[in-house]
Records
---
Amino acid sequence: MSQDLIEQGVVAIADHIARGELTSEAVTKLALERLSARGRRFNGLVLLQEEEALGSARAADKARARGEALGPLHGVPMAHKDLFYRAGRVAACGSKIRRGFTPDVTASVLRKLDEAGAVDCGTLHMAEFALSPTGFNEHDGHGLNPWNPAYVCGGSSSGSGIAVATASVPAALGSDTGGSIRHPSAMCGVTGLKPTHGAVSLFGAMPLSATLDCIGPLARHARDVARLHDVLAGADPADPTSLGAPQGACEAALSGDLRGVKIARVTAYYSDFVHAQVSAALDEALRVLRGLGALQSHTGAPNMSRLNALMHLVMSVEAATLHRRWLQERPEDYADQVRGRIEPGLCYPATRYVEALALRGPLTREWIEIAIGDADVAIIPTIPILTPTIAETTKGSPTDIAATIGLLTRHTRAINYLGLPAIAAPCSFSDDGMPISLMLVGRPWSEPLLLRIADAFQRMTDWHLRLPANLD
Amino acid sequence: MRNEDLAAIVGDLNHVPETAARISRHAPLVLDTNMLIRDAADALITLDATPLSFQALKAECKPPA
């Protein structure tokens, strides 16, 4: 399958630039053209920074010509969800309330990408205040799925999924509080990592729920996600909750060899409501993984109603704490669906919130013991149902809409309460031509293993290489 | 407690009078969630037995840098 420059991905582009076979200016121009055309067509683009990006790209080319040491992302163009602050640049966070908000700080993740040599081309569509799993945004319009614009693209990092799936950029950052990296990855057919909570600094990213928020990359290739996570992970004095991680561990782990790795297929809660096409795709993915030497076990799941309730309580209480003043002063400036997800947080007694935090340790331990067991990782469908249409998530009875949205987040949301790392990767397509995705979940700090498995799978399959038809 | 009473208390405590009028629609979710978490806490949290924290679990799993 032939791939153009951006489809080849982050590692390939950085290698071409380092060897002098490609200029950053050339690939950045291509990214800007595609963001402008494809990004706008699927409503994935918020802000294009042409002059700034081309200036950075030319500076990167001059640095290489001078023989300077090159970072691991030297000259690679990217764009990111519109909630990562860059001093002096508007970050509306998908909202009406923050329209025109110009931060005076730069997010630590953007600073780390800058230091690694990446070129920032602009900002991407997101759900209002990161509060929708579908790409719904009442103010900016729906993000559209590049595989079929009648279908939802996934959110809340909707533009990140769109920009990578359309090969507008090789990678983009997203954030994940209940699945917001994994949903667009799954529905747009790309690879996305939600790291261990605390692995990546949250400083300078719009908070939704600090206990649950995680920042991670979306890219076509798992190897690109590995390189990006190696750049992003690590302790940051600006975010005291961030913790160190072994440097360079993810990319170094990509051996292609899965001998001795044990993967648990989780049933019970994680097999109820799973569509037959999704289940068949997971079976086939496991067959490929076994062919690479992986062992398979079967496990169950603990009380997931309780875990989902805990996630909901922590998220809504922390979000309501941040939004209370606006709920008081500007309630009409929220979409009803968004406001309705924050308001319950005003109702819970403080004792429940403290209990929810205290229960996180033992219940995470319990989930690992039951769902992973004696295996190394668990495998679960990222989304149990087939990707719905926009109409299915916006029209009809509120009960039906809520049920569909609840199924979209059924497998993702508790993972944030548990704080565990998870990677979503494409593993098939449905009969209606929409991507199907698997999710690997590991113990804390197991990102190198998750990426090793996803990369090995991608060496044997081409689901991640496929591109939507009629992009131009 | 009646849903309207809960809504009034929440609206008053948070000073969000317009939101208070909408709170009653969240009452079933709030009451279910409250019960699930209270029951879990009853089983795991006592004065003399604080559960191992999430931070401790992460530290236990962390590979050497």
Note: Chain B has four helices and no strands.
---
Amino acid sequence: MRTCGFRGLLLAASLAATAAHADELPVALQIQLLSNMTTYIANMRPPDGSPVKVVVVQAPAGTPTRSAQSLFNALQQAGKLGGFKVEPRLLPFADAKALAAALAAEKAQVVYLTSELNEKAAAGVVEALGTSGTVSVSSVADHVRLGVVLGFSLVEARPRILVNLKQAAKQAIKFDSGLLRHAVIVDR
Amino acid sequence: MGVGETDIRASRPLRGWRAPRLLAVVLLCCVGFPVLGADDALPAEPTPKPDEAGLESLLGESVVSTASRTAESESEAPATIWTISGTDLKRYGIQSIEEAIRFLGHAMTSYEYDSRLNAAFGARGYLSDNLGLHLAVLIDGNQAGGSAKTARGTQPYLMPIELVDHLEVVIGPGSVVYGNSAMLGVVNVVTRSAASLEGTHVVAQLSAGLPADEWAKDLSWGELWSRAAVYGGQRFDVGGEPFALAWHLGLRWDRQEGRSVWHPVSGADVFEDPLAAHTREDVFNRDLQARLFARATWGRWAFLSWVGFNRGTGTGPVNGSADSRFIEPEYGFDAAWSRHIGDRGSFALRAYAVVYDSRVSTVTYGGDEAHCLGAVGMDTCYDTVQYVSVKPFLEPVLTWDWKQDGTHVTTLGAQGFIDGSIITTSVTATDDSRSAVDEPILAPIPNGALYLQHIWRARFGTLNVGVRGDLGLLGSSLSPRFAYSTSLWTGGTLKFATSTGFRTPTITERYLEIEDFLTSNPDIQPERVHSLEVDLGQRFGLQRLQASFFFTYWSDLITTRGVPINGRSITQFANQRNVWSAGVNFGWQGAHGPFDWGLSLNYAPGRRAMPKGILGYSDQELADIRVRREALDQFGWSALGTVFLPADGMPDFYAPAHVSWSLGENLPRLSVAVSVSSPRMRAGYANDDTMLDLRNVDGPRLPWSVDVRGAAELQVGERVGLRLTVSGRSLPTVANPPRVGDTTGPDPRGGLGVVSSPSAPISAMCEVSLRL
């Protein structure tokens, strides 16, 4: 019995899926916040007439992509971000180099990371963005510590915005200073 | 305006949506508006102004997960929900869920009601003083250790205050997802993640209060308690995955208020000479409580575990003299594993168990020589009861997002659990030389439940429809819920919800038999509650207003009655009480500048419906349903052909409110919380002839009462925090009598009064916290 139970645990542990983070905001609220951010962050606004391009980064092929897919679908349904038409696109993460090339072609305003991306992948996205003006946003607070510019988290049942100021400066991201009154600064 | 500008514009290609704008510019020019430069004529998309009000409103939206077991905005949750932040719990020096509800809650009322800090909770017309059986108290969603038979989830030592992120209070029935006990509501204690705790923290508290007992001899009769806790969070790698651990070790020592317990002298007329008709016993209860709590996440796994220990002497949970004592160890473990299924589903499997071991030694006041001689052949003895409750749960939950966008989400869950009890009674000689142990009673009662919930988020609003079926030896129940919420306008929401709740009878209520006193009831059924509510909410900036209008019917509530057996009236638990309630809960949470506040105004009268034709009942028939004619004469009123009595212990009106003010950076923060209750009836008044006797100086009705707590906190440097709280209460006793002695006793002012558990009228607590 003990062996069977132990095997069961090993089998369970070997499955590649990642549980959704308990402190993640509902997708609809993430999109509402993202929409509001376009009024604060100049880099999120597209050149005249163009839609806001949002690249939703999927976890590497073969791993679950439910959160990314949900976010993509919800963005499509929303249709607009901050009054601008939105054009979402799903992009699987393979490595930083490939993603950098894909992002250069996309010319996206926003790169969105979801909870399915582990820390290594999140760091890869940051590396891929380099010093470009594309705003990286994540639904996982820990990703901001790794260099993602903007993150959402849940503290005491209320949404919080996290800003990595150092990374924002490095990427020359321009935003209204009023945002900092409502955000938690993460500089590591 | 220059003609040339028009030319410039005309020379540009007119691209789709710009044409109307150009036309507008031309028209404006024609009516004499100021000249626009060439570059202004076809401006790029104007820079939008930061939408600060919108952002504040979004950041003020609570995200909750208790009502439907899925993360959702409070505005679309299928119930009235109130969140209490961990910051507020610490800020106001809150020690228990009961205090959190009393000072910071909404729609629910509560008070400590006996000498062991057990608590009574009330909402929507009904107040439960039945050991927490009508309120589901969860810790991170774990149902096993929260409510159950001893209200232990509501006791101070079981809540790791410093580790609490927030409390989610769901008002109204929640059996659709939580089954048994979720009648008044559901309180979920959500703990902090390891990531939110930096390093190790220490906190020490010391509190002292003035005596409240009217017969107190001196100031030493006042309460005294101290508490220390150490807690922290750590993260490290295990097998390539981050392992995040949050932990909390708490220790609390209590010397409760001194109390005079009055034991009636057999045959004496208590009104003739109250002092001579009682003997007095002075009691000082002492408790020592410790608990280690840990929460961990590792990959797809989440764990909770705790070990608790509670030891005490004196009266309270046992109906004995001051020499009685108890030990209550508790062990809990919870493991949950989850994974995605394809791109639409997720599956979680949760296994958890609690073992609660209560060992009580009861010393009868004055001794019982005949009993001791019969049992162990000695003059003096004590009775012991060991009650071991074992509750293992297994809970698989499947969630399916049909369209991968959250618009159609179905949850299918099952719950299998065993409500296991092992009860061993014995009689032991006082010198422990002999002991007579009865055969242990084993009662492993299996239970099963299946629930289904579907959430449909559409343009017309959000529908939440669910049903749960519970099957068990102690009763079966079907619990449906239908809820609809919609956005009326910016920040405004409307909710409609109808829900049900139930409580299955306890083993005692169903099976216990005591010769010539108590008989079992094979026909006893679960208690039920049905609720209908309309909830209006409005958010603007940091302000959140909420008004809930409800109608609630509590049916088949279990109380005792008399049944004739062999010509004698024997006590039996039975479904025989119905309570009606309709009212409104108004709540406001907000902040502005250095202030933040909360206000809750509640009108929730409860009226107990008497059986039809009760005014024509004989004295024996009234005695059998445990109602005195004096109660009907003094407090009964008729409507629609039914006689109603005020519900036990439940105030018609109650209002907690709090406000906090930061004096500035590096300066103290001041906070005040107030809880007001309208007059309410003492519990059990309808069947207490001494309490109902007009010669009783107190009578069964408690007056208006106010509880106040003021707090000041100061951060000294980055690592040290200081806090001082001062609490006062206008009613230093509570609605319920103590569980030992008589419900009444001599009053120092003369005559006979009602005896209640005393609580300090004024107390002060100081706290030092340190981050290592």
Note: The CA atoms of residues 324 and 362 of chain B lie 5 Å apart.
